[in-house]
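Predict the holo structure. Ligand: NDP.
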Amino acid sequence: MGNKSLTLIGLGPMGQAMVNTYLDNGYQVTVWNRTAAKAEPLVARGAVLAPTVEEALAANELVVLSLTDYDAVYAVLEPAAGSLSGKVIANLTSDTPEKAREAAAWAAKHGAKHLTGGVQVPPPLIGKPGSSTYYSGPKDVFDAHEEALKVLTEADHRGEDAGLAAMYYQAQMTIFWTSMLSFYQALALGQANGVTAQDLLPYAKMQFAMMPHFLDLYAQHVDTASYPGDVDRLAMGAASIDHVTHTHADAGVNTTLLDAVSAIFHAGMDKGFAENSFSSLIEILKKQAG
Ligand code: NDP
């Protein structure tokens, strides 16, 4: 798209970072936000504040959304749905894959095309090298607007299904939140033993640095549904997680997280996977047939 002009709706920390990045790159940006005052510093830099959502939509074909969730998307767009025809909505609002699919169908009903986006970086990294966003939706629409989208971050189109970008985003957040909790759990154990977070930090980093090796190996196990157990029997893992849990309990640390992990290991043992690799736990976690 040679036309360096777009509309951006939603001026939370993320939307503001996006508008600033577009302005830095010479784009003409029309903005709208429920709380209009948040537009002031952007208007001072050259953005145009549309007085209504309808006028914001009318200003450009490409409309980027950066709202809290999809309830906010409908709160903003539903009253202005009559102005959606012919628009391309790049919806960089996080929510579930199902909500993204519903929104794509809703947009189509009003004559608009919908690209789902899952931004992988916090606001300060918008416009910086190495940042990336998952996209999904019609490839031709993505291709037509890729140049503008790539001003924000690298753009990784994952497929046509509107839900896919949200699924990749949520999969990544699954890893992020649970890994971070494991870090806090280890720090709580350290604290209970008079060891500071700074003391444990290099060892935690070392552990995370070793993880890619395990990810490569176990992704293969999962895709082939083969859990050989040659070096990592589930029975060994279950004994180990019991030691971990008892260590925390003895130190008086909250074991809610570890009890949940332990329950999954023991469900695998109950299923008869003791001699399999601990990657067999995917059989406990995955969607069950029927
Ligand atoms: P915020 O929740 O801070 O702000 C989002 C915007 O949503 C604001 O402009 C707010 O308007 C608007 N909004 C919320 N509810 C309504 C409503 N009912 N009607 C109208 N407008 C509404 O989010 P962020 O800016 O931090 O993030 C935006 C999106 O980006 C989110 O989906 C988030 O998950 C995603 N994201 C954020 C990251 C981050 O680190 N911040 C990282 C990666 C993704 P108002 O100003 O009037 O309150």
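The chain has a mean pLDDT of 97. The pocket of NDP is lined by residues 10-15, 33-35, 38, 66-68, 72, 75-76, 93-94, 119, 122-123 (CB under 6 Å).
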